[in-house]
Write a structure and sequence with these properties.
With about 300 residues, the protein is mostly helical. It is about 80% helix and about 0% strand. The protein has 14 helices and no strands. α3 (about 60-90) packs across α5. The chain is globular, with a radius of gyration of 18 Å.
Length: about 300
């Protein structure tokens, strides 16, 4: 129960950030330009800083093994999500099917998930979470894009390698392995910038949700996606890791990130490639809203 109340506390704080972002968008403080620029600031600056600082720890063989296990678990769960997406959504319209498949594959594990595991599990949890999101980031720009249109392998590879979060992981690993000391003022600046990620990222989620028409938002198909993305997949992950007797921290981080809501990029890609953007926005809204309940519930079973 302690983990449950801790996660409720973390989610409650993040919910307040979302409400602030929602208000800022509705009141005009965030216009389209401001929101887009703040998104760039989070993705390109503060989130990479938070990820980089998570590698500021002593290096050991146990740390390497635990990190490798987290990546392996993420790969297996991504493959399971891909398979489920192909099996479950055949009866839906093509413009909805690609959205449901993408939402099952790509969660908001980086943008919203890392602040959650950071608050619930501290620096060690953030370290594992930073590694856990690597397979998702790779699939996001390859298999994920191919669900909407034919993906160009060269362009996908370029996007993966130049992704700020991936670069932060690579540089962070070098720092941890080589134990490179940074000047105190640099370390403090990077750490403080990273600390801005949670409030800004969740405020941006709230700003995105503010654009969804509330009258028509409760689409039953959205809840179908929620059941798969936020309940079936994390419980599958939990059951498998419990059977394999994986350590509690790795289980907690893996289950929490597997159970994150669908990525906000779902609506962006739907708009860009001519899928049902309104349906995608509904899915993002419902998924993000219900995650405030589903993520704490998952901790009851850890």
């Amino acid at each position: 129960m302690e983990s449950f109340f801790k996660m409720v506390d973390v989610q409650s704080v993040l919910f307040i950030y979302m409400v602030v972002g929602f208000y800022c968008r509705k009141s005009g403080i965030f216009n389209d330009v401001a929101r887009d620029k703040l998104t760039d600031l989070v993705i390109k600056i503060t989130l990479p800083c938070m990820i980089f600082e998570s590698f500021n720890m002593p290096f050991s063989l146990d740390t390497l093994k635990q990190g490798g296990l987290a990546i392996l678990i993420a790969v297996v769960m991504a493959m399971a999500a891909l398979l489920l997406g192909k099996v479950l959504y055949n009866r839906f319209k093509p413009e909805e099917k690609c959205i449901l498949q993408y939402g099952t594959l790509v969660s908001n594990s980086g943008f919203a998930g890392l602040p959650v595991v950071s608050g619930a599990y501290g620096d060690e949890g953030l370290f594992l979470g930073s590694l856990f999101i690597i397979p998702t980031r790779i699939l996001m720009w390859s298999a994920g894009i191919s669900l909407f249109t034919r993906a160009d392998a060269k362009d996908a590879f370029k996007k993966v390698m130049l992704n700020p979060a991936i670069i932060a992981v690579e540089v962070g690993i070098l720092r941890m392995v080589l134990q490179v000391p940074l000047p105190h003022f640099v370390d403090s600046a990077v750490d403080n910038l990273g600390a801005c990620t949670s409030p800004m990222a969740m405020a941006l989620v709230g700003a995105i949700l503010a654009d969804v028409p509330l009258k028509s938002v409760f689409d039953p198909k959205s809840f179908y996606l929620v059941a798969v993305r936020q309940l079936f997949l994390p419980f599958l992950c939990l059951a498998a890791l419990k059977l394999l007797a994986v350590d509690p921290l790795t289980i907690g981080v893996s289950v929490a990130l597997t159970g994150m809501p669908i990525g906000s990029t779902t609506a962006i890609l739907a708009q860009k490639y001519g899928a049902d953007a309104q349906f995608a926005s509904k899915c993002v809204f419902i998924s993000t809203l219900t995650s405030l309940v589903t993520v704490p519930i998952l901790t009851l079973f850890l």
